[in-house]
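Let us walk through a complete example step by step. Step one is to write down the protein sequence. Step two is to encode the small molecule, fe (ii) ion, as a SMILES string so that its atoms and bonds are unambiguous. Step three, shown after the inputs, is the structure prediction itself.
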Amino acid sequence: MAKRSKQRAAAKKAAPKKAARKKAAPKKAARKRAAPKRHVELVYKDATCKPTDDHVEGPYYRPGAPPLTDLYPPDSRGSVLHFEGTVSDIHCRPVHGVSGEIWQCDEKGRYDNQDPAHQPAPDYFRLRARFAIGPDGTFRLRTVLPANYTVDDPGGNWTRVKHLHFKFFAHGHQPFTTEIELLPDRHTRSDKLYNPHLAAHLQEAGAEKGLPAYRACYDFVLKPVSMKGYALAAGRLKPQR
Ligand SMILES: [Fe+2]
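Step three: the predicted structure of the complex.
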């Protein structure tokens, strides 16, 4: 008898657990229904490195830039900028096979395609390059320190903080466009596109051929994406509706 009553007591204890499992079931179903119909698999839960913010491409991007790591134009007299970067995934590991692109204005705040009346020849590129990121996830570029430039705005013109534009492409990661803003700069408060998360601080680095030289660094972090998501984002696959 004592054995049976023990068994009954044990069954009673087990009963609430069963009920709890039943209650949990609808929640699981709701999660399934709420899942977005996208192929992008963003996994930030266990990220130790935060993905770099996107930024606008702007009106001056041109595809097809040549492979270069020294962009400094031969006819320039602006300050030299050594830009060093790393590219990692959200686990802070170097990403292999990354290709990058940079474009920027010169020391007078001019892009090579800025004047609508004087567009460059299709094979002429000034201060634009594509470059490879090394197996250790690092890259180095030599260029001219860009100047500020004015943005024509019907609501009142404003000035952009000195910046470099970048694009990065890597299999298994979301292709993305961003920019790095070079500080110090007195226009951080009035620049409508300024993002403090994308700031790199200029450090003096002596002089080169009588011109001041600076150094700046930034660590880029790519967002993970499935191969299907990569093809979608790169425009090689049309989204299904
Ligand atoms: Fe720009």
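Step four is interpretation. The chain is about 15% helix and 30% strand.
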